[in-house]
Amino acid sequence: MKKILLILSSILILSSQVMAYEEANYEIIKENKNYEIRKYSDRLVIETNSIQGNGFRKLFNYISGNNKENEEIKMTVPVTQEVKNGNMTMQFYLPSRFNKDNAPKPVNSEVKILTIEGGYYAVIKYSGRSSDKNFLKNKDILDKALKQDNIVVLSPPIRASYNSPFTLPILKRNEVMYRVDL
After folding, report:
1. Does the structure show a pLDDT above 50 at 30?
2. Cα 75 to Cα 104: distance, rounded to the nearest angstrom
3. For the structural domain made of 43-116, what CATH number should be given?
4. Where along the chain do its domains lie?
5. Which residues contact 4 (CB under 8 A, 6 or more apart)?
6. Does the domain formed by 25-41+118-182 have CATH 3.30.200?
């Protein structure tokens, strides 16, 4: 029985790691037991309002070829969410081969192509479900640590998710991020 459980566990772990997505590049500037400070370059994203939870579907349709060039685009990580002008937004990062000039134009007027300006971000990583409760718990931990270290926060909290919904919660990588002033 132990052998069967070990085999099944191995299969689950390997299957959750099989899909390797391109990740936004960054450099770790500072790291401690609570968080790390990352330096990101400018990044191209597609963004939409995430009203009634349909933001993911709009963005997924775009990368599935529902764009003016009918071009399928590989999924990247993370998928991010943040509040802008009182509305929850969702972003998919575009693969690094794209820029403002060669990115397929959206068909859906609610999908926008934007550049997220590079800069410094404080990040805390956590596993488990990407629930509001888990996000808020880790946001509070990061808030406290940044305040203690006198780091100035420049943005609302950003929720970053890295795994498919089928990944076991214990294997999921989630993050809370803030743009910060160094």
Report:
1. yes
2. 14
3. 3.20.80.10
4. 25-41+118-182, 43-116
5. none
6. yes
Phi, psi (5° rounding) for residue 9? -60, -45
pTM: 0.85
Q: Return the pLDDT at 51.
A: 75
Q: d(Cα 63, Cα 58) in Å, to the nearest integer?
A: 9
92 contact partners, CB below 8 Å, separation of at least 6: 45, 46, 59, 60, 62, 63, 75, 76, 79
Say yes or no to pLDDT of 28 above 90.
yes
C-alpha closest to that of 153 among 48, 35, 23, 45: 35
Query: Mean pLDDT across the chain, nearest whole number?
Result: 90
Mean pLDDT to the nearest integer, 160-171: 91
Residue 112 or 166, more confident: 112
25-41+118-182 and 43-116 share one CATH topology?
no
